[in-house]
Amino acid sequence: MSINIKQIHHVAYRCHDAKETMEFYRDKLNMKFLLAIAEDQVPSTKAPDPYMHLFMDAGNGNILAFFEIPTHPKMDRDRNTPEWVQHIAFELGSMEELLEAKADLESKGLDVLGVTDHGIIKSIYFFDPNGHRMELTVRTDKPGELEKLNEVAVPMIEEWAKTKKAPKHAAWIHENEFANS
Asked: What is the pTM of this model?
């Protein structure tokens, strides 16, 4: 028997306030609110632990879910990990859409970082009301670039595992960015 994953069904995160979180994703990112499930007992563990579980449509069959669990201490981020590491990235269709999204989010009062050029994508960053870092991104790769990155992926991991220093196999991604800085 082998596992044959079709796609991610949903990714779930904790939130401070289910209603506020639903409204943020619905009103700021135009995600459809799909459904909510609330129970006083966790189905998998049978623990008496009331929760609200909400599901947002992130497009193309992708679902972003959140849990509000009011009986536990207030959530916090992983203090051993820099804020920029853990994030949720959503893909947009064009650079024009990315720039429009940045303007729209800023007009709604969000602090937006970027546009950041990653060579094969361009991105903007902001935080949701729970402190989760969000990324909106658009693909900007040129023909052959992803294949070139794929060819060096294993050697890069092997070098990183030995040295814990950034391998230079894909330094070309940012060469133009730094040359223009």
From this structure: 0.87
Reduced to 3 states (helix: H, G, I; strand: E, B; else coil), residue 157 is helix
DSSP state of 46: -
- Please give the helix or strand (H or E) that residue 32 lies within, else none: strand 32-39
Neighbours of 154 (CB within 10 A): 10
Q: Is 3 exposed, middle or buried (0-12, 13-18, 19+ CB in 10 A)?
A: exposed
DSSP character at residue 76: -
Which positions of the chain have pLDDT values less than 70?
Answer: 176-181
Distance CA 123, CA 89 (A): 9
Question: CA–CA separation, 113 vs 134, rounded Å?
Answer: 10
CA angle 86, 125, 14 (to 5 degrees): 45
Structure tokens, 5: 């994953």
What's 114's DSSP letter?
E
> What is the pLDDT at residue 175?
74
**Cα(99)–Cα(65) distance, integer angstroms:** 26
The one-letter amino acid at 49: D
